[in-house]
Amino acid sequence: MAARDEWAISCRDLAGRRRELTVFVSSDRVVLVAPPGEAAILAPLDVGRLRAALRDAVVAAGQPAAEL
């Protein structure tokens, strides 16, 4: 997987600890990984970053795999 096909978005859990949501592309699918066993609390700016990461992931998922 190329580095450009993975995005990290800062968030906090319910206890206020810093956590991360991860968005990545697997084949032609977009995968969202939340903090294990936690809820993700996003600030408005981080919601915008999540939206942008999801948009970029959808575009990347629609691209044909690069030939090696």
Structure description:
With 68 residues, this protein is an alpha+beta fold. It contains one helix and three strands. The protein has one helix spanning 44-61; strands at residues 6-12, 18-26, 29-33. The protein is elongated, with a radius of gyration of 13 Å. The model has no long low-confidence stretch (mean pLDDT 86).
**Total DSSP E strands:** 3
What is the strand arrangement across the widest sheet? 1-2-3
The low-confidence parts are none
User: Oligomeric form of this entry?
Assistant: single chain
Q: What profile does the largest beta sheet have?
A: 3 strands, antiparallel
Strand and helix order: EEEH
Shape field: elongated
Number of helices: 1
Radius of gyration: 13 Å
Report how far the terminal alpha carbons are from each other: 12 Å
What is the SS-derived class?
A: alpha+beta
Percentage of β-strand residues:
25-35%
Bin the helical content.
25-40%
Report mean pLDDT, rounded to a whole number: 86
